[in-house]
Each structure stands twice: as C-alpha cells, then as structure tokens.
Design brief:
Layout lengths: L8 H11 L4 H8 L3 H8 L8 H11 L3 H12 L25 H11 L6 E6 L5 H13 L3 E7 L12 H10 L3 H7 L12 H4 L12 H18 L5 E7 L6 H13 L5 E8 L8 H11 L3 E5 L5 H11 L8 H11 L3 H13 L12 H12 L3 H12 L3 E3 H10 L4 H13 L3 E3 L4 E4 L2 H9 L3 H16 L7 H10 L3 H17 L3 H18 L2 H17 L3 H17 L3 H17 L3 H12 L9 H7 L1
Parallel strand pairs: 1-4, 1-5, 2-3, 3-4
Antiparallel strand pairs: 6-8, 7-8
Helix pairs in contact: 2-3, 2-4, 4-5, 6-7, 11-12, 12-13, 14-15, 14-16, 15-16, 17-21, 18-20, 18-21, 19-22, 22-23, 23-24, 24-25, 25-26, 26-27, 26-28, 27-28, 28-29, 28-30
C-alpha cells in the first residue's frame, strides 16, 4: 500500500481501512469484530488491542508483509499517548444517536426480556436505517449478558448454503482458544457435516453410523442449536442477521428450526431485510409466513423519519448543526424523504464542503451511487420506464408510460412487468389513479441526471406524441414543454400560444407573459415575422395589464414595424390603438397623442375598418 511514515495504531488502521474502500461496519464484518470495536480503535479509545485482534484486522485488510509488520509494530508501541480522534461518519454505521427509532428499540428490549416471540424481523427500503438499528441491538444485548453473533447475507448467497449463520459460527470458532472451543463444541458432533475442517482439529468426530439425509439434516440443525446454547452468555445467545432478502432456502430452513427450538433454549434472533428485493415466492417470505403463523416471529416495518426527526438527525450529524439555515433544512429533508442514509450523505457533503456554497441542489456522490446500484439491478425495460417517468416530470399515467415504451418497441407485458418490479424495488410508487411516481425525489433526480442529451430529447418527443393522442384534452402547457425539449419548435409554438391564451383567460398574467415571451422568441427563430408580430400583440397586452409599460410599448412597436413593412394598414391601426392606451395608462397622454396623430389623418385612415378606426379615435 505504499510507504507510510510512523503513525499511531489508530491512524494507521484508519488509513489502511480507507485505502481498501471499507466502512467501519464492513471491516468489522470481515474481521469478526463489532463496529463499536473498530470505532474505538480508530478513535484511540482502545489503545491496547490484543494480538488476536491485530491479526484479524491484518487479515481482513489484506496487508502485505511489509505493511503487516508496520501494523503490528504500531500496535505494540505504547510510549506515545494516543489522542482520541473524532468519530468518522460512515454511511453504514454513522455512530450518531438514533433518531426516531424509540418504538424499535422498545421492541428489541421486549425481545431480550422474553416479552416477544423469539424472532424479530425489521423490514424496510434501502437506506432506512436497518443496519444501524441492528448494530444498536448488538450493543444493547452485549451489555446485558447476551452472546452476540452478527452476520449478513451477501448478494447471491443462494449459492452458499446456510449463509449467513454458518459464516457467523465459523468466525466465532476461529477466535476461540482450543480449550474454550472444546467446551463450545461439546455434543456438536454433527456440526462436522457443515464444517468439515472441525474434524482436522481432532476436536469433534463424525458419528460412524449411517443415517438417512432427513435424519442427518435434523441432527445437523440440532448440533447448531447445541453450539449456540454452549456459547451462550448469562442471558443467552442473540443472532443478528442483515440483508436476509438474499438468504437461500437452506438458510431459511435452519432459521425456522432454530426459532422452533428457541422456546426451550435461551436463543433469540433479530433480522432485517429489504422489502424492495423480496418476492412472495422467496425463501424468506415463506419462512416469515410459517413462523408468524406459529407465533414465533414478530415483524415490524421501518418508516421514514418525519420532517422534525430528519432535521434533528441532520443537526446531530453536522458540527454546529443548530446554525443550519431553514432553507437548507427544508431542502435537504424534502430531498431525502426521511431516509437516514440520504441524510447522512447530505451531512457528509455539507460538512466536507463538497457542495458549492449556496448550491444545495447537487447530490452527494455516495447517495447517487447507492441509487445507481439499485437501478442497475432492474431490467432494461424497467430502466427505460424510469427514464420516461423522469422526463415526464416524476409522475405519469400507466397509459402514457405504456404508449411511450410501446413506441420504443417494447411489448405491453414487458412494460407492466417492469413497472411491477420497480414498485417492489421501492423505486416507484403506484398511486390510486393508475399512475406511477418515484418513491423519492432523490431517485428521480439521479435518473434524470444520468440521461444523455440525445436520450432526453428522444423521450420528450415520444412523450409529446403520446400525450397528443391520448383521449381527452391534454394541457397545452405540457405539450408545449415536451415539444420544446424535443427540438420540435414548429409544433411547440402551437401549444405555446394555446397555453398563453389559457393563462390570460385565467388571469394568470405572469404565466401568460412568460409563455408569450417564449412564443415570440421561437417564432422569431423560425423566421415567421407575421406570426411573431401577432404574438407580440398578445404579449404587449399582458405586459400592459402587469403595468410594465415600457416593455409593453416595445412589444407593440416591434409588431407595428412588421405590419408597416408588410403594408398591412388594418393591423397597424389596431396596434396603434394599443400603443395609445399604454400611453394613457402610464399618464403620458400628450405623448400618446403625438404618436397617434399621423394615423388619424384622412389619407392614413383609408383602408382601416370602421371598428378599428373608432377604437383609434
């Protein structure tokens, strides 16, 4: 890892961990230690790590011979006092006070005091705080006499039977002394079927008699239960599982057996899974159904934080959190939707200064990467559906999404399946009126951010075409918006004018002014001066209603110049009536009379309709 200057063990551990890209929680899992232990070592609170701990950390970090020697030497060096370092904020285990989880902590305490079924399962979307809650459960249990084993199912663990429980037992065995291990393995002979390496230690021996596979499986499960009972603390043994959505059938069968046996042994289990990554047919879903039916499991859904809880957490995470402006608080809490992981990501970015001053619309990179990984797990059609939804503004009807994706060559079944998987993955929500929206503003922003300009333009065109052919009346504003961004100005100007007229009818002058201004610009660019002059008349009238007299006069005068060039006498007179009215409204009637006088001459009035001439007079 390169040459390093002599450092304290705390600083060296922190540097090596960051070099490998691991969080404190991930390193703890690799080394078979608790995240609290890693945090204490990195802050210099624990200044005398045991040799076994140093060896486990060196292995987990994958240190080469030179770095390992330096690592071990720093652990033996005690002369210089170590200064405790600030807690490093980690997305997986932030090291901050829990916020908004009072009910969940009460459930954990009830479980440990035997007032709940033996298994407690938390469900929630990614980033909701499941892992953090499990770590706090471990700390609480370890401090009250429980032996705690923690593990997580890596993605794809269906290929690794009995994960994560078997891996947890392996780590527990690896850190026990021979004498301690002998006691722990008492009566656990059939554990050799799961861990053949135990036979090499001459600690346990496989019974010699042959049995049917069903009998062997039952005895293996019993051996696991016996091992967990042997290593129990004064209160019992607590198993903590994260990412159970990836547990395979074998692991779920073992968990069911342990839960059924826990009524007579001091064994409790706490687990968590992503409800976005589980189907009703998955092994975990079936296990939950079985155990709930038998009264052996209590399931609890984690809800997003309220706005007040989000603000509280944000203030805790940031130095000088009480000084955060209300504008930033409101923006961040709205963007994060009560998801703790996103709040931690924002806090890190704000604290490190990676967001430009005053620019709170940028997303922290770790938040973006987390969402990108979730999106990448979905099908190509699902990705197209989310891209379409993002370009459509974040909410769209099933009809619109279907029509756009059908136009892109997808089948209706593919579209429906893609939307269903996105809903299950908690990327999208289905509303009651057969429409879809993003589950979180941050997801929408990331999807939109990653769209290329060409893809965005194509999607705007498809959406506009689909909206144009939908039954009923689609708002002109929406069609204008999409056709403009689809680089279809000819179609866009038609809907821009309709949108402006509608705004005027509603006396929404600010909207009308902006729309007519856009219309004029587009018509000028298209080289349609007469149409632009007509639009300037409408624009001028709105500007006059808004008492923006100088700009109104400019719009009318430019329209007059076009009509004069085209020798359109009637149009010139019509615009002059508007110009005169603007002068009158702003209190300069004499100046207005001077402007209109030439048009009132008998020769100039020829060809003007009586109605217009009357209005001019």
């Amino acid at each position: 890892m390169g040459t390093l200057q002599p450092q304290t063990f705390a600083a060296l551990l922190r540097r090596y961990r960051r070099a490998t890209g691991l969080t404190q929680a991930e390193l703890a899992e690799r080394a078979g230690l608790s995240p609290e232990a890693i945090s204490a070592l990195e802050r210099g609170v624990n200044r005398t790590p045991r040799r076994e701990t140093v060896d486990l950390l060196a292995e987990a970090l994958g240190l080469d011979e030179q770095d390992r020697a330096r690592f071990e030497q720093s652990a033996r060096h005690r002369s210089a006092p170590l200064v405790a370092q600030p807690v490093t904020l980690e997305p997986a285990h932030a090291g901050v006070l829990l916020v908004g989880r009072t009910a969940e902590l009460a459930l954990i305490e009830r479980l440990l005091s035997d007032h709940l079924p033996p298994a407690l399962i938390f469900e929630g979307e990614p980033g909701i705080g499941k892992t953090r809650l499990l770590h706090d459960a471990a700390s609480l249990a370890a401090g009250t006499g429980w032996a705690v084993l923690m593990g997580r199912c890596p993605q794809g663990s269906y290929q690794d039977p009995y994960a994560p429980l078997l891996n947890m037992i392996e780590r527990d065995i690896a850190r026990r002394s021979p004498a301690d291990l002998k006691t722990a393995l008492q009566g656990c002979g059939w554990l050799v079927r799961l861990l053949p390496e135990l036979a090499e230690r001459d600690t346990v021996q496989l019974p010699p008699w042959p049995l049917t596979p069903e009998q062997e499986r039952r005895l293996m499960f019993a051996a696991v239960a016996r091992y967990l009972a042997n290593i129990a603390g004064t209160a019992g043994t607590l198993l903590i599982f994260d990412d159970l959505q990836w547990a395979g059938s074998d692991a779920c069968d073992l968990l069911e057996a342990l839960a059924r046996g826990s009524t007579t042994t001091p064994l409790r289990m706490i687990g968590a899974y992503r409800n976005s990554d589980i189907s009703t047919a998955s092994p975990l879903a079936q296990t939950i159904i079985h155990l709930e039916h038998e009264g052996l499991l209590h399931q609890h859904a984690l809800s997003p934080f309220t706005e007040d809880e989000s603000v509280t957490l944000l203030r805790q995470l940031l130095p000088g959190g009480d000084t955060i402006s209300e504008e930033v608080q409101k923006h961040v809490t709205q963007q994060c939707g009560g998801i703790p992981f996103y709040l931690v990501g924002w806090a890190q970015a704000l604290a490190s200064g990676t967001l430009p001053s005053g620019q709170v619309d940028a997303l922290p990179s770790d938040v973006m990467q987390s969402i990108r990984r979730r999106i990448a797990m979905q099908s190509e059609v699902a990705g197209e559906a989310m891209q379409t939804l993002a370009v459509a503004g974040g909410t769209a009807s099933l009809r619109l999404l279907r029509d756009v994706l059908l136009a892109g060559g997808r089948s209706e079944d593919e579209v429906v399946t893609a939307l269903e998987t996105c809903v299950r993955a908690r990327l999208l929500d289905e509303t009651s009126d057969a429409a879809y929206q993003f589950a979180n503003d941050v997801i929408r922003d990331v999807v939109a951010h990653d769209l290329s300009a060409a893809r965005r333009t194509a999607l705007h065109r498809r959406i506009a075409t689909a909206l144009e052919h939908e039954p009923g009346e689609t708002s002109a504003e929406m069609l204008a918006f999409h056709y403009l961004r689809a680089d279809e100005p000819t179609k866009a100007v038609t809907y821009l004018e309709r949108a402006g007229d509608r705004a005027v009818a509603m006396q929404a002058y600010a909207a009308a002014e902006a729309t007519y201004g856009e219309l004029v610009e587009r018509l000028d660019h298209l080289g349609r001066p007469l149409d632009a002059a007509h639009a300037r008349e409408k624009w001028g009238r709105v500007l006059r209603a808004m008492a923006r007299y100088d700009q109104s006069l400019t719009a009318f005068e430019r329209a007059f110049d076009v009509y004069h060039k085209e020798a359109n006498i009637e149009a010139q007179a019509r615009v002059l009536t508007q110009i005169g009215q603007v002068y009158a409204d702003r209190g300069s009637a004499r100046e207005g009379l001077q402007r209109l006088a030439p048009a009132l001459a008998p020769d100039a009035a020829r060809g003007v309709s009586p109605q217009t001439l009357a209005a001019l007079h």
